[in-house]
Amino acid sequence: MIETFLISGLSTKAVFSAVIFRPALFTGGIWEIIGNSSFFNILILIVMAIMSLVSWGIMVNKYRLFKEVNRQTEKFSALFTRSKQITDLLGQVKNFRMTPLSGIYSAGIREADAIMEAKNAGGGLQESKRKLDEDDFKTVNLMLDKSISEETGKLEKYVVFLATTANSAPFLGLLGTVVGIMDSFWAIGERGSASLAVVAPGIAEALLATIVGLAAAIPAVIGYNWANNKLKFILDHANNFSLELLARLKKDSYL
Question: Are 202 and 187 in contact (CB under 8 A)?
Answer without folding.
Answer: yes
